[in-house]
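We emphasize that the prediction below concerns an isolated chain of 162 residues; any contacts that depend on oligomerization or on bound cofactors are therefore not represented. The input was used exactly as deposited, without trimming of termini.
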Amino acid sequence: MVREISAGGVVVERLAEGWQMAAIEPRKESSGSSGGKKASQKVVLALPKGLVDPGEKPDQTAIREVLEETGLTASLVTKLVDIKYVYVRSWGDRERVFKIVSFYLLRYESGRIDDLSEEMRLEVKRALWIPLETATGKLAYRGERDAARRALSYLQSHPEVG
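Result of the prediction step, given as a token string:
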């Protein structure tokens, strides 16, 4: 079985109304059927993430992917969780892949959300801020909802981050 190692970030910024989190809307591969009710009309929100490059540490990958997919520069606060799952490639060899995605809590430093390169627009339709407190109801993937939940819990128990 092939192994893939990825990393991503929960980027947060504290505003008067509370913690905001950067999310992305990935560009859909096709607008065809996704096996069900109104799936093609539903907005899919996800966390920025990508494969760890050779010689790169996962936390460096998370910071790089956040910059590429959201336009934001962020700094490391802490590791949140490793999500592990198996999937079957839907392209090429249709091989089973064991995937590990490490998610990190990152603090917003600079940049403008959704300020992306033209190349990145092929992958990311848009990047946006959403309230961290409601992120678990908006993110499409269970492991990413868990990462957002852990980020909120960490921030609530570590007020010095704010």
